[in-house]
Design a protein that fits this description.
Blueprint lengths: L2 H14 L14 H15 L14 H26 L5 H14 L1 H18 L6 H7 L1 H16 L6 H13 L2 E2 L4 E2 L4 E3 L5 E2 L4 E2 L4 E3 L3 E3 L20 E2 L4 E2 L4 E3 L4 E2 L4 E2 L4 E2 L7 E4 L7 E4 L16
Parallel strand pairs: 1-4, 2-5, 3-6, 4-7, 5-8, 6-9, 7-10, 8-11, 9-12, 10-13, 12-14
Antiparallel strand pairs: 14-15
Helix pairs in contact: 2-3, 2-8, 3-4, 5-7, 7-8
Length: about 300
């Protein structure tokens, strides 16, 4: 077989096997451009941390101005592609409006991201400095970009929000859908293998560990057996909840009450009242009981240890 034979075979496949071709349609967002935007967003959120050269107080105004102009240019372009894909009637003007709204919201977003960094520092005894957390903790990247993607998701922008979170997923191993709603002071310790679904709701001061899944119990389907979009199918974690490694919490009606703890490898498809603990004991299924009056550390329960 020659290269010409392979080319002809692929062209025949393009003609015969539809569904994974995109010819003569709208120009889709560029993965390379979106990845660059993600990197630039991190520079804006954490100035001076990811620069090749030191960023001084004297130079920060000029650098920030140039960076904003560059991000604005590329963001408008990728937003317009996404809006054309979803057949928005005025993609150009709407892309400009959304880009300005997103960029204008960055100062407020930085205040929220700062709480996430604080939660990581306060919640990890191995952390030696805030600089270490921002530079090397994967949760900072994945949570920060998810918060940006969520702003676009809430504006019903197609494609681009998920591409932003997938950049973070590829870099960190944590998959957080842009639709998930997350409160302040959120910390994912170790980060790898975490999956948080589209309709998950997470309160403030929540800490989860590696391998945690906030997933769907089942899908509501239509007459053709296809999933109905937009149905609440992922759990809610109220404020001050801790979820330990490998736990799986499923279902749109599942609520983990505030100040509760979910132990390692627990499988939950039912709600937990506030101030409770779920864990395994021997061969028994998940046990849910009230927390002890002075129980603040999971080791005090004596049932599992990280």
């Amino acid at each position: 077989m020659t290269l010409e034979d392979i080319t002809r075979a692929l062209l025949t496949s393009y003609q015969n096997d539809g569904g994974i071709n995109h010819f003569d349609g709208t120009n889709l967002p560029s993965e390379e451009s979106v990845n660059r935007l993600c990197s630039e967003f991190m520079h804006l959120l954490f100035p001076g941390f990811f620069e090749q050269k030191p960023l001084t107080k004297q130079s920060v105004a000029g650098v920030t101005s140039r960076r904003i102009e560059d991000i604005h240019l590329h963001l408008v372009a990728e937003l317009e592609k996404s809006l054309r894909f979803s057949k928005h009637p005025t993609p150009g003007s709407q892309a400009e409006l959304l880009a300005m709204e997103l960029l204008g919201g960055l100062p407020s977003l930085r205040q929220i991201v700062k709480t996430d960094v604080s939660a990581a520092y306060d919640g990890d005894p191995a952390a030696r400095s805030v600089e270490e957390i921002i530079l090397s903790y994967p949760c900072v990247l994945v949570i920060s970009l998810q918060r940006i993607a969520n702003l676009l998701y809430r504006q019903n922008v197609a494609l681009l929000p998920r591409m932003i979170t997938e950049y973070a997923h590829e870099r960190t191993g944590a998959d957080i859908h842009p639709g998930a709603e997350i409160g302040t002071h959120f910390f994912i310790d170790h980060c790898t293998g975490v999956v948080i679904g589209e309709t998950a709701r997470i309160g403030s001061h929540v800490k989860i560990y590696q391998g945690v899944t906030l997933g769907a119990k089942s899908f509501v389907t239509d007459e053709q057996g296809l999933p109905i979009k937009g149905v609440k199918r992922h759990p809610k974690l109220e404020d001050h909840v801790i979820v330990y490694p490998g736990a799986t919490i499923l279902g749109g009606e599942t609520v983990i009450g505030r100040n509760s703890i979910v132990g390692s490898n627990v499988w939950l498809m039912q709600s937990m009242p506030p101030n409770s603990i779920a864990y395994y004991q021997g061969d028994q299924a998940s046990i849910i009981r009230p927390r002890k009056a002075r129980e603040s550390l999971v080791e005090e329960a004596g049932d599992w240890v990280i």
